[in-house]
Design brief:
The chain is mostly beta strands. It contains no helices and eleven strands.
Length: 127
């Protein structure tokens, strides 16, 4: 059973940056597409970004395109999310996720695509 552990969240002012990390253990995830989702209080969990298993293709939600960058280091079994120009609307718990199929690409992931979830890390952006 794979375990995903996020880190890097925190409190930042609007316009600032944060870099989230997601470390995987228990199983290598180098053959799986990976993604980030987020959930704000009172809202459903929403897709943020995805990266293909080889790391050569990425896909972003319109709300973060141009500000966030997803990347991965398969040698370290780690996923990243670089978040720049943060806005108060980005405040949420951010979860990393592993696609349930091997050799998966990057596209708009839904919950049905996901085989494993991390517990999440809180990101708070103050205005």
């Amino acid at each position: 059973q794979v375990q995903l552990v996020e880190s890097g969240g925190g409190l930042v002012q609007a316009g600032g940056s944060l870099r989230l990390s997601c470390a995987a253990s228990g199983r290598t995830l180098s053959m799986y597409g990976m993604g980030w989702f987020r959930q704000s209080p009172g809202k459903e969990r929403e897709f943020v970004a995805a990266i293909s298993w080889r790391g050569d293709n990425t896909y972003y939600a319109d709300s973060v395109k141009g500000r966030f960058t997803i990347s991965r280091d398969n040698a370290k079994n780690t996923l990243y999310l670089q978040m720049n120009s943060l806005e108060p609307e980005d405040t949420a718990v951010y979860h990393c996720a592993a696609h349930r199929r091997i050799l998966s690409g990057s596209y708009y992931y839904t919950a049905e695509d996901i085989g494993s979830w991390g517990q999440g890390t809180q990101v708070t952006v103050s205005s």
